């Protein structure tokens, strides 16, 4: 896929698509189709699959993305202290409501009435009367008694339980740290592969994020961090967590178990607004097209859910089991792209993304420095009917600040750092451009050339160039330049 095709896509879809890799999508032909159907970012879930599997899939994605000249970004999602069931003899067991079962932390294979879990402190963390939720809360147990490694429970909500499904303990203070020993090993592995981001599960505080940041920095890597909001504590500490993260994810699967399900949509809205106000990309994840794991058509409620997230101004929507283990991975991505396009077309027609801008301008004054520049850029580009906004970024700050204003005019984000270039692909309405030259000496010339070569603008068209953002206030000298190609 050349840059012109990408540009056409950007004109028709600003909200990005994240797809999880797994057994249904580890084949080169499928990966190619997923990219051609609209995937912008792939997720490798470290909770499943071996390092060998992940490495093989990673190399396939990179080689196909290179071949297609597509700025696909890849992130590794660390397990975090997610407690899971172990393996069962036939891959699953059935739990009957009102029956008695045992959860054990012994290292065994599970069978009827016996659920293994590798989390060794489980028996210490729970008390009689606590609830244990299984598989994103679909099944529920009540703790009756604890004897060393054995937790005796009554099944209060039965059903089928498969291998390695999540265990949640709502209201129980889990002793495991956010970054477990396994996470550190998985992070090293993924950083060595060259992932663009690491996703940190079950973040509770800013310190959790900084611990991972240190691990990345100590290894001399540049990977970004996506903080996953899955705990009530994270919502309380949202601003401080967002500020030290490169992006966030509203991880609705675990969040909906740790909170009540009805609290999730409000948390989603608040997090989208908070992340945008702080210039950080935000992903909404989980069960977006869940029914398409087995069906070729989505439920009406799923379609509305995606449409709603787009209208709320999210940067990216994510597919999990749908592309990792579902029967129709490519059809699911196509469906997601269609839903996004239809909703965005309406929003642009109604000038509703501009309403989001107004929402932002309702923030306390003076509004943050970057927002003023970003909104002026968006407005000027629109008023002058500029063909494109071009940002020049070393760190990526100019591009993410402009993207957060959700401009009507497409944003071409230039960087000469391949990692920054790919990380741009998670951002709303941003088409990444990799340049050999950072444009420090001849920025106008570079901007004109990129606008022309990408087909975004022709001789005589207006373009708007933005550059000079920096996190150090003394070096922060953003400028807007109106250029004629
Ligand atoms: N790499 C993989 N290998 C095997 N199964 C996978 C893989 N990725 C996902 N799956 C399956 O798809 C389901 C949904 O995927 P996902 O949301 O990524 O996982 P989870 O919710 O378990 O963290 C998983 O529970 C698992 O059954
Ligand atoms: C995305 C999520 O995390 P995971 O799939 O790793 O549990 C979630 O909980 O919604
Ligand atoms: K995970
Ligand atoms: Mg989760």
From TrEMBL:
Catalytic reaction(s) noted: pyruvate + ATP = phosphoenolpyruvate + ADP + H(+)
Source species, domain of life: Bacteria
Signal peptide annotation: none
Coiled coil regions in record: none
Domain Pyruvate kinase C-terminal: 371-472
Enzyme class: transferase
Ranges for domain Pyruvate kinase barrel: 13-333
Keyword Metal-binding in record: yes
Pfam family, one: PK_C
Keywords, ordered alphabetically: ATP-binding, Glycolysis, Kinase, Magnesium, Metal-binding, Nucleotide-binding, Pyruvate, Transferase
Protein's pathway: Carbohydrate degradation; glycolysis; pyruvate from D-glyceraldehyde 3-phosphate: step 5/5
Protein EC: 2.7.1.40
Keyword GTP-binding: no
InterPro entries documented for this protein: Pyr_Knase (IPR001697), Pyrv/PenolPyrv_kinase-like_dom (IPR015813), Pyrv_kinase-like_dom_sf (IPR040442), Pyrv_Knase-like_insert_dom_sf (IPR011037), Pyrv_Knase_brl (IPR015793), Pyrv_Knase_C (IPR015795), Pyrv_Knase_C_sf (IPR036918), Pyrv_Knase_insert_dom_sf (IPR015806)
GO molecular function, one term: potassium ion binding
Homology family: Belongs to the pyruvate kinase family.
Name used for this protein in its record: Pyruvate kinase
Native source species: Sedimenticola selenatireducens
Encoding gene, per UniProt annotation: pyk
């Amino acid at each position: 896929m050349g840059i012109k095709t990408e540009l056409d896509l950007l004109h028709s879809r600003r909200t990005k698509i994240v797809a999880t890799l797994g057994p249904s999508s580890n084949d080169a032909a499928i990966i190619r189709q997923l990219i051609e159907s609209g995937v912008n970012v792939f997720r490798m879930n470290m909770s499943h699959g071996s390092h060998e599997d992940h490495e093989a899939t990673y190399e396939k994605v990179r080689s196909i993305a290179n071949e297609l000249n597509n700025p696909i970004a890849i992130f590794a999602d660390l397990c975090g202290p997610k407690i899971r069931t172990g393996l069962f003899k036939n891959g699953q067991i059935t739990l009957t409501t009102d029956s008695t079962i045992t959860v054990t932390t012994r290292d065994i294979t599970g069978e009827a009435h016996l659920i293994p879990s590798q989390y060794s402190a489980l028996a210490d963390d729970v008390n009689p009367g606590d609830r244990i939720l299984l598989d994103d809360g679909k099944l529920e147990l009540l703790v009756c008694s604890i004897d060393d490694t054995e937790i005796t429970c009554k099944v209060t909500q039965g059903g089928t339980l498969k291998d390695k499904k999540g265990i949640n303990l709502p209201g129980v203070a889990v002793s495991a740290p956010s970054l477990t020993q396994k996470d550190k090993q998985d992070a090293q592995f993924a950083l060595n592969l060259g992932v663009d981001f690491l996703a940190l599960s079950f973040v509770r505080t800013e310190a959790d994020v900084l611990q991972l940041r240190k691990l990345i920095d100590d290894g001399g890597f540049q990977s970004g961090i996506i903080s996953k909001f899955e705990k009530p504590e994270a919502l309380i500490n949202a601003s401080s967590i967002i500020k030290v993260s490169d992006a966030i994810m509203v991880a609705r699967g675990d969040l909906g178990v740790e909170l009540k399900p009805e609290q999730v949509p409000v948390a989603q809205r608040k997090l989208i607004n908070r992340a945008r106000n702080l210039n950080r990309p935000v992903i909404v994840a989980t069960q977006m097209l869940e029914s398409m794991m087995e069906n070729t058509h989505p439920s009406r409620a799923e379609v509305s859910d995606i449409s709603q997230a787009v209208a709320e101004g999210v940067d990216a929507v994510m597919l999990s089991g749908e592309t990792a283990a579902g029967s129709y991975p490519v059809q699911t991505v196509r469906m997601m792209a269609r839903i996004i396009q239809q909703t965005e077309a309406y929003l642009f027609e109604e000038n509703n993304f501009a309403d989001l801008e107004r929402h932002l301008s309702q923030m306390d004054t003076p509004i943050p420095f970057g927002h003023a520049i970003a909104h002026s850029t968006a407005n000027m580009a629109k008023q002058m009917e500029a063909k494109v906004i071009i940002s020049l970024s070393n760190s990526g700050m100019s591009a993410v600040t402009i993207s957060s204003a959700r401009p009507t005019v497409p944003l071409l984000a230039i960087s000469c750092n391949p990692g920054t270039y790919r990380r741009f692909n998670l951002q709303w309405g941003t088409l990444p451009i990799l340049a050999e030259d950072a444009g420090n000496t001849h920025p106008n010339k570079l901007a004109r050339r990129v606008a022309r070569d990408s087909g975004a603008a022709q001789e005589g068209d207006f373009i708007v160039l933005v550059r000079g953002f920096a996190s150090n206030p003394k070096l922060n000298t953003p400028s807007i330049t109106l250029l004629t190609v």
